[in-house]
Amino acid sequence: MKMFRKAVSVALASALMFSLAACGSGGGDEGSSDATTFKIGSIGPTTGDNAIYGTAVKNGIQLAVDEINEAGGINGYQIEYQFEDDQSDSEKAVNAYNTLKDWGMQMLVGTVTSTPCTAVVEESHADNMFQLTPSATAVESIQYDNAFRMCFSDPDQGKASADYISENGLAKKVAVIYNSSDTYSSGIYQRFAEEAKSAGLEVVAAEAFTADSKTDFSVQLQKAKDSGAELVFLPIYYQEASLILAQADKMGFAPKWFGCDGMDGLLALDGFDTALAEGLMFLTPFTADAEDEATQTFVADYEAAFDGTPNQFAADAYDCVYVIKAAAEKAELTPDMSISDMADAMKAAMTEITIDGLTGKQITWGEDGEPSKLPTVVVVEEGKYKVLQAE
Questions:
Q1: Residues 175 and 201 sit within 8 Å (Cβ to Cβ)
Q2: Same domain, yes or no: 265 and 302
Q3: How far is 154 from 360, CA to CA, in rounded Å?
Q4: CATH code at 215?
Q5: Which residues of 61-98 are buried (b: 16+ CB within 10 A; e: fewer)?
Q6: 145 with 107, same domain?
Q7: Rounded to 10 degrees, what is the CA torsion of 44, 48, 53, 59?
């Protein structure tokens, strides 16, 4: 009798362990026959130094989700959306990913910045979950076949910058100030330097700084000035750029300035004298001052919903949700499919769709996850952005 009880106990324990294992195997990866909504998660910084980026992405996604749900959803199904803050930190981003998996996430829009995205793509690849980042630019951020990108990669921004400077005769002698401790900045710089040679540009100074030395740029600026640079290329974020522009002004150094998408946010920086940015040019997929109907409608709706003007990160994120909608409809997804089956179907659909979005027209994707679209360059004039080259 005791042996029978022991056998029953072992059987029950085994059944319980199997049940618990099934519940924890990927947040419902087998799909659910009674699922009635698509669950889209997103990760990015809404606190910390890069909060302006994550908040914009969070809001841009929300606006698109609300519009799509009001119009009938995706394949007749509504979208549920949840955002998690990662403070632009890799460990926190992975924790956020797991939180979203526990919630039931089926597709991921994110993460917002490159280093956390590179960490999270390891997890999404292991789960074979579809991932579309609005703004992570490092090559490694979408190194697997389940991951795609809305923005240009770091190398693509470096090449496009060199080509634009050369083709428009902005300068022959160029200095570069970049952050060697940052994958975004160093990735752009490396490709820029390579492309500059074939584009007929002479890099007369290439001066680095690190995360531990990003407040005093007097040495880098003096070397750029002494080298005779006609233009200084800044593949960096707007916070450091604001200091560089102010310090250059104090030392009487007034070259042309050219940056990339990390420059977006400069004019909205508290305490920054926007007159210092007059004439600054940078690559960006979106400007709120563009006069096309789609942009103006988006800007008006965003300002009404969130009491602020959208930047390129908001526009990239907004486009991401509509890309997911187009690919999901192409793939004929339903919410009861497993995460892996959804991802496999989305991978194929992404290479078959063409999107007209806020951040580009006739956008397509290759199997490598990279978008194909034309770059846009803006210049700061009288405290506002003016488009120099449109899609």
A1: no
A2: no
A3: 17
A4: 3.40.50.2300
A5: bbbbbeebbeeebbeebebbbebbbbbbbbebbbebbe
A6: yes
A7: 70
Question: From edge to edge, which strands make up the β-sheet containing 147-149?
Answer: 78-85, 37-44, 107-110, 130-133, 147-149
Rg (alpha carbons) of the chain, rounded to whole number: 23
Q: How far apart are CA 108 and CA 147, in angstroms?
A: 9
- Whether residue 341 contacts residue 384, with contact meaning beta carbons closer than 8 Å, is answered with no
- Tokens for 108, please give them: 């991921």
List, for residues 349-382, the tens digit of each pLDDT value.
999 999 999 999 999 999 999 999 888 899 999 9
Helix (H, G, I), strand (E, B), or coil: what is residue 335? coil
Cα angle value 62/63/67 (rounded, 5°): 115
Range of the domain at 334: 37-151+292-372
Determine the number of helices (DSSP H) and then strands (DSSP E) in the chain. Answer: 11, 15
With respect to residue 277, please indicate whether it lies within any of the assigned structural domains. Answer: yes
Query: Are both 109 and 160 inside the same structural domain?
Result: no
Amino acid at 230: E
Residue 16 lies in a domain: no
Q: Quick check: pTM over 0.90?
A: no
pLDDT bracket for residue 385 (50, 70, 90): confident
